[in-house]
Amino acid sequence: MGTPQSNVTMSAWRVQQPGPIAGKPLRRVSTAIPRPQPSELLVAVRACGVCRTDLHVVEGDLPVHRPGVTPGHEVVGEVVEVGAEAGADFAVGDRVGIAWLRHTCGSCRYCRRGAENLCPQSRYTGWDEDGGYAEFATVPAAFAHHLPSGYSDSELAPLLCAGIIGYRALARADLPPGGRLGLYGFGGSAHITAQVALARGAEVHVMTRGQRARELALQLGAASAQGASDPSPVPLDSAILFAPVGELVLPACEALDAGGTCAIAGIHLSDIPPLNYQRHLFRERQIRSVTSNTRADAREFLDFAATHHIDVTTPEYSLGEADRALADLEAGRIAGAAVLLA
Known about the structure:
Elements: E1 9-15, E2 26-32, E3 40-49, H1 52-59, E4 75-82, E5 95-98, E6 101-103, H2 109-112, E7 123-124, E8 136-140, E9 144-145, H3 153-156, H4 162-172, E10 180-184, H5 188-199, E11 203-207, H6 211-220, E12 224-226, E13 236-241, H7 249-255, E14 256-264, H8 277-281, E15 286-289, H9 295-307, E16 316-318, H10 322-330, E17 339-341
Parallel strand pairs: 10-11, 10-13, 11-12, 13-14, 14-15, 16-17
Antiparallel strand pairs: 1-2, 3-4, 3-8, 3-17, 4-5, 5-9, 6-7
Helix pairs in contact: 4-5, 4-9
Organism: Mycolicibacter kumamotonensis
Pfam families: ADH_N (PF08240), ADH_zinc_N (PF00107)
Enzyme class: oxidoreductase
């Protein structure tokens, strides 16, 4: 594909006014194709995953960073233009991934110690800059990702956030070898994370609200699947909370065995009710948050996906159905990870 002309327009979704998805806060527009900066790539979007973080941006759970932003940060596409200073890692025609993390300063104390996910100057695709609910998107070449073979565009898209964040959450949960892992919520990220844990020999138990999600969990190899706030059938070594529901922190912590860790994977969480020290934390149980990811996390996870095929369940929507996809996500009607096809 050749370089698009500057006067050619594209279709994109923008957050007109953040609010409940039922109020139609997204608006589809015709706008100019973005021009890449010298250090950036211009990408023709082939597929874009529909992430719960997109819903938080659209509904206003997260503060507005860019008025009228185009959401979407699980982007698979084709490089159609390479900026003059973008380096030699990518060429026109390459399949490329655009993920959530888009910029870090590289010089602060967090970046210097390998914790660039905590960089105070970090910027994010689909929040600080326009994302993949569009026909074209840009990405700094230093934050673009080479993608493993053996996957379709639809299968790859959820790996770029749901997969990467789940992989980091699994590390933060300190799951011991052969340990028992509880997953609270079983959407796009959890159904990928479960497969990583199972491949490493873990015993996985799922607590989630949707019957279809429970059925998917069992199909993928979970030892049990029950309601979101139901007690775990066994003491857990680790738990990961994917659902943005603070009330679930209590049953997750109560299910932990001595020394267990509960990792909270989401960028947004409703308020956590008061904890009872004896029931929820004593015996060296702990709670940890997860904040974005580093590029090293992304590389490690994508390398894992290259050698351990992950079955990604991807209900597909056209780009023109982005608002319906988010409504289905909000209502819990999606099993797996929804994907928009451009």
